[in-house]
Design goal:
The complex is a heterodimer.
Chain A: H1 6-18, H2 34-40, H3 42-59, E1 63-65, H4 68-85, E2 94-96, H5 97-101, H6 104-113, E3 122-126, H7 135-138, H8 148-155, E4 159-161, H9 179-195, E5 200-203, H10 206-214, H11 216-223, E6 231-233, H12 234-241, H13 247-251, H14 259-264
Parallel strand pairs in A: 1-2, 3-4, 3-5, 5-6
Chain B: H1 14-23, H2 35-39, H3 50-58, H4 62-66, H5 70-73, H6 79-83, H7 90-103, H8 111-127, H9 133-147, H10 151-166, H11 181-191
Helix pairs in contact in B: 8-9
The chains are: A alpha/beta, B mainly alpha.
Bound molecules: iron/sulfur cluster (2 copies).
């Protein structure tokens, strides 16, 4: 959020006041250890997020998590604590940001505030793995075929397309060590998105965004064909539709520049 | 007629029972439907399919599993666990085997993967709780180039770094030191990492 996902952070901060929502950063949060922790040490993979859980309890508010992996690990720590102590460690709810912002009340507010309908923008929603799976940890009901992103895009008057790869893996945990494997997975996603008729992805996780956005040039070279599929954070599209003045600035930080596509659709 | 000689495996239950004790995962519930492997997106890079891992765990084939490629190229997407009709946490078995491989100092098939995970955790510990993406990427790149100098990879990385920098998506300094720095250190110590 402070680094490679600065665009996501800025769009979240930009959009929430427009929805009359005040988000406070969890004070003194620490990294949950991600895939590295659960791969090498089961214990670490609970204790690191458990610390954040303790901070959240003190803060006494619902916890809204913009990263799929953090969300997953925080939920896992919550479940583990429940198992150990028989009580819920937190009397508030842990949300992933997409679920939180697509509650009916927010969608209603949003519908009223759409100034620039995203007409003609053909998009596939890409949820990735860990916001949905495993349901025993995430408590999701529609883990195989989530619909939030599509609902949101409909409110923004874009054209969400159906495809079968919305919760498939982009290989985020292997980005550093085996980029070649990530390329295979991501190219599959590009091809399937194109086959569905999409011209862009909409994501709710900064690891998904990074993998789909940063490797596009490299994969194009390997494939010998030019892929052009911008990768939007859903919060950026909310900002665009509500006419937030910073939207162009957020979008300028992507490696696959979405602006030509938006200009073509008359949206920028 | 030439009938191929089958190599019988001597089943041993120690692995399955240790797994059950430490993780509450029961591999003996597996009836080999192979649904886990059917949905796994990484099978193209694996030497054992996820269902084979479960079978071999049941048969106690520790060495074969700890030395396998599969446990390290598994991307932890948890599709297998989600879909197993018998509630077996296959992804959890993969994690357990990785941790065990390091504990037993087994020959790791994918040292890059294990090292990347280790560097990631060390980066959090050193910075006192938050990750420095920049330091992690640099350190891993140096490690990789030492193992196998590759000019193209170096240039590609430099190009990506520059592109991110230009878009203000690289934080060059250290991440802020958090108040709970001491807690983080003791969490790492307790976990023995
Ligand atoms: S899905 Fe479950 S029961 Fe089926 S083969 Fe895999 S581990 Fe066994
Ligand atoms: S968690 Fe690993 S083994 Fe299971 S489906 Fe995903 S990549 Fe395959």
């Amino acid at each position: 959020m402070e680094g490679t996902a600065a665009d996501y952070a800025a769009s979240i901060a930009g959009v929430s006041p427009l929805l009359d929502l005040e988000l406070a950063e969890l004070e003194d949060w620490s990294c949950c250890g991600a895939s590295a922790a659960h791969s090498l040490s089961h214990r670490l993979s609970y204790e690191l997020p458990a610390r954040n859980l303790g901070l959240a309890k003190k803060a006494g508010l619902d916890v809204v998590v913009p990263c799929a992996l953090c969300f997953n690990r925080l939920k896992a720590a919550e479940k583990e604590a429940e198992k150990e102590t028989g009580q819920t460690p937190l009397d508030k709810k842990i949300w992933d940001l997409l679920d939180f912002l697509t509650q009916p009340s927010f969608l209603q507010t949003l519908a009223k505030k759409v100034r620039r309908p995203l007409k003609g923008l053909k998009a596939v929603g890409y949820y990735g793995c860990l916001a949905s799976r495993p349901p025993a940890i995430t408590d999701k009901l529609d883990y195989e075929n989530p619909q939030n992103m599509e609902k949101l895009l409909t409110v923004l008057q874009a054209e969400p397309l159906d495809w079968s790869y919305k919760t498939d893996c982009c290989g985020a945990g292997l980005t550093l060590a085996r980029p070649d494997l990530v390329d295979t997975l991501v190219r599959r996603l590009y091809d399937r998105a194109l086959a569905a008729g999409a011209e862009c992805f909409v994501v709710s996780c900064q690891m998904c965004q990074a993998n789909l956005d940063m490797s596009q040039e490299r994969i194009s070279k390997q494939a010998g064909k030019k892929y052009y599929l911008p990768v939007f954070y859903f919060t950026e599209l909310m900002g665009l539709a509500m006419g937030h003045t910073d939207t162009a600035k957020w979008l300028s930080r992507h490696l696959v520049d979405p602006r030509p596509l938006l200009q073509k659709r008359g949206l920028l | 007629m030439n009938i191929p000689q089958m190599q019988p495996l001597m089943p041993a239950t120690h692995l399955a029972s240790r797994l059950a004790e430490t993780t509450a995962i029961s591999v003996s519930a597996c009836y080999q439907c192979k649904k886990c492997s059917a949905g796994c997106p990484l099978t193209f890079a694996m030497d054992l399919l996820p269902d084979q891992v479960i079978r071999l765990a049941l048969l106690g084939q520790m060495e074969r599993l700890l030395g396998s490629r599969t446990i390290w190229v598994c991307a932890s997407c948890v599709t297998c666990t989600t879909r197993c009709p018998n509630g077996i946490d296959i992804a959890g078995v993969m994690d357990w085997l990785k941790e065990e491989a390091l504990k037993q100092k087994a020959a790791v098939d994918q040292p890059e993967v294990a090292t990347a995970h280790r560097f990631f955790l060390e980066s959090i510990r050193k910075a006192g709780g938050r990750l420095s993406e920049m330091a992690l990427m640099q350190r891993f790149l140096i490690y990789k180039l030492r193992r196998q100098p590759n000019l193209k990879e170096l240039l590609d990385n430099a190009k990506l770094g520059l592109a991110l920098f230009k878009r203000r998506r690289l934080r060059l300094g250290r991440p802020p030191v958090i108040k709970g720095k001491g807690e983080i250190q003791s969490i790492f110590q307790r976990a023995g990492v």
